[in-house]
Write a structure and sequence with these properties.
Layout: H1 9-27, H2 36-47, H3 51-61, H4 68-81, E1 85-89, H5 95-102, E2 109-114, H6 120-126, E3 132-137, H7 143-153, E4 158-163, H8 169-179, E5 183-192, H9 198-202, H10 213-221, E6 225-229, E7 240-244
Parallel strand pairs: 1-2, 1-4, 2-3, 4-5
Antiparallel strand pairs: 5-7, 6-7
């Protein structure tokens, strides 16, 4: 007999959410066994030093929505900065988190925030021996989530903040205003999708969505020393805006 049938169906439904949370918490613990099918990929990530090769692995094993010219340009700047503490707001499938862990040998503590951090367990088990990756599931635009982030930082200042979450004007502004104060002087904040998509500019829906990030980026440019990593100003969305925290 299946053990779960020992409980009435109504009780199983009540207990199911708690059981699923417990399973997810265990799988996202660094103490849980690493699935055998992840061992080869992890070994490859640990051995790799090429940003281009790691970008390819990020796309293959996790999923990433980036223009190579732009994300590789950002990684080059971060390698000079040598960030130890990183916060990413809006992790999507985890490809950016993977890159920040493995293309930046200086990284020691990485916190990823999303409504649902996809591939969270895999990111945690792929982290290098000197690293800790924390996946925080929930709404980034709340003071409660900021408090959870600060708890994971454990008193550390943030060297690099990457914002790629809610692409509405109000959403990206809220994420910036909540988490930018955590970044140290000399640190870097980067926003993704600073180029307006073709639907916004031309009324042509291509399926690419950059939202209203470009509007908030225009405001930040007037307030901070900045740089734009954009392959083509006429492209359909994408683009990375870099803010230098002076």
């Amino acid at each position: 007999m299946n053990p779960k049938h020992l409980l009435p169906a109504s009780l199983r439904e009540v207990l199911r959410p708690s059981y699923q949370r417990a399973v997810r918490t265990w799988r996202e613990s660094r103490w849980s066994p690493t699935p055998r099918e992840w061992l080869a990929g992890r070994a490859s990530a640990w051995a790799n030093t090429s940003p281009e090769a790691l970008l390819e692995q990020a796309g293959t094993e996790f999923g990433i929505t980036q223009v190579p010219f732009e994300i590789l340009g950002l990684l080059a700047k971060l390698r000079v900065l040598q960030p130890k503490t990183i916060v990413e707001v809006g992790t999507h499938k985890g490809g950016n988190s993977f890159l920040f862990c493995h293309a930046l040998s200086s990284a020691e503590r990485i916190v990823g925030v999303d409504l649902c951090v996809q591939n969270a367990a895999k990111l945690i088990h792929y982290a290098r021996p000197q690293q800790r990756y924390f996946a925080l599931h929930g709404d980034s635009q709340t003071t409660q989530m900021k408090a959870r982030v600060e708890q994971r930082l454990a008193g550390r200042v943030v060297d690099f903040l990457f914002i790629d979450g809610d692409h509405s004007y109000a959403g990206v502004k809220a994420d910036f205003e909540l988490y930018a104060p955590l970044v140290r002087r000399g640190g870097i904040i980067a926003l993704h999708d600073i180029v307006a998509d073709h639907r916004t500019r031309f009324g042509r829906d291509t399926g690419c969505y950059a939202g209203e990030v470009y509007q908030y980026w225009a405001e930040l440019k007037a307030r901070y020393r900045n740089e734009e990593l954009v392959r083509d100003p006429e492209q359909d969305g994408f683009g990375i805006g870099v803010v230098y925290v002076d």
